[in-house]
Amino acid sequence: MKIYTRTGDAGKTAVVGGRVDKDDIRVEAYGTIDELNSFVGESITRMSPEKHADLISHFTEIQHELFDAGGDLAQVGKERQYKVTGDMVTRLEEWIDQYESELAPLRRFILPGGTSLSSSIHICRTVSRRAERCVVSLCKSEETNEEVRRYLNRLSDYFFTVARVANTRSGVSDVEYIRGGQAFS
Fold first, then answer.
1. Which residues lie in coiled coils (predicted)?
2. Quick one: how far is CA 154 from the chain centroid?
């Protein structure tokens, strides 16, 4: 099979159930999820198998779910079979609760940084938020799986939490935003 087909040279791309313009909000949404998936993979390469075995397992599962999310968004037409469910959102919440037990209470806003792993996970967090904004726009104009929006929202919370865990496990403090007062009590 050749990797190039030339079918997209006119500015259209195939989705499940038809073809759309390459700058369609649907393509932007699942393309941003694909970008996020790449950053998740990059974060895995920074993880120590000894110190981060749980995160490696979770991030690998998340990569598969992100692929599912992109597939859900790439469907147009009447018949749709979605893979992203509310159970995935609930599981992310359980993981967040589990990891919060490793962390000191949050008193101030924090800046991305500390360790290189934490910084790369913060990139995942921000790209997840951008993907969520794209899906919000898509949901306003097209029918699609709205569970993807909820999943991305919770996923960014998960990334925030595990970015802090990455610092904690390395004995590095979070970088606090010092120009503001205490934000959390």
1. none
2. 9
Q: Which residue has the higher pLDDT, 50 or 1?
A: 50
Q: How many residues comprise the chain?
A: 185
Contact in structure between 167 and 120 (CB atoms under 8 Å): no
Domain residue limits at 38:
12-176
The domain that holds 43 is classified in CATH as 1.20.1200.10
Structure tokens at 178: 């010092």
Residue 39, in any domain of the structure: yes
Q: Residue holding tokens 């993981």?
A: 95
Distance in angstroms (rounded) separating the CA atoms of residues 65 and 133:
18
5 located within any domain: no
Interval 69-108: pLDDT, tens: 999 998 887 777 899 999 999 999 999 999 999 999 999 9
